[in-house]
Specification:
The chain is an alpha+beta fold and about 200 residues long. It contains six helices and six strands; from the N terminus they run βββαβββααααα.
Amino acid sequence: MAIPVNTIPTFHIRSDDLIVVRNNGRMYQDTRENFAADFGVSIPAVIIAGGNEQIYERGKRNTINRDDDTIGGGPLQWPEADAIIAKLDQAIAAQQTRERAPLLARSAKVVAAHEKVMARFNYIKGDKERAKLVACLKTGSLSEIENYVRGEIDADAVQDVASAKECLKRAETAILTLAKIVAASVDPDQFDFDA
């Protein structure tokens, strides 16, 4: 159910665990638990038996309702509700910070996975074409990556078993590094980069 945002300072308590605070076109809407954390206060216990919401609009109404029927009311000046409304901007900021925290944690995991992949690049020190590989991987161009791997194979002109093994080792390292980069971009929680 969408609640329209209005400019009248409003404190709305609903029995379905939803709290709404509005003022000057801004609105906060969340659960009782999150409300207490974001506003730093508990909800005044004022809904009387049989009521399922209380709506306080400063200077206009303070009603206790059961569905669409008004069954009671409170004073038009309610200092506790006014103090809550005064904290609206701070509570919205706290709510946004709380809601962004999981995203920031996820971003940190992605950065950590990227750093592990970059450490893998630094591990390929013996490859004289490492800079070329890194450039190919950074651009993400499949044709450049394919050309790099083919170039590694052709570079040695594979004349004996030893040079063929060295060539395959470099190609394998390039392919494994690519696979780990792709894995890191999909979901770093699913992959062990230390293996």
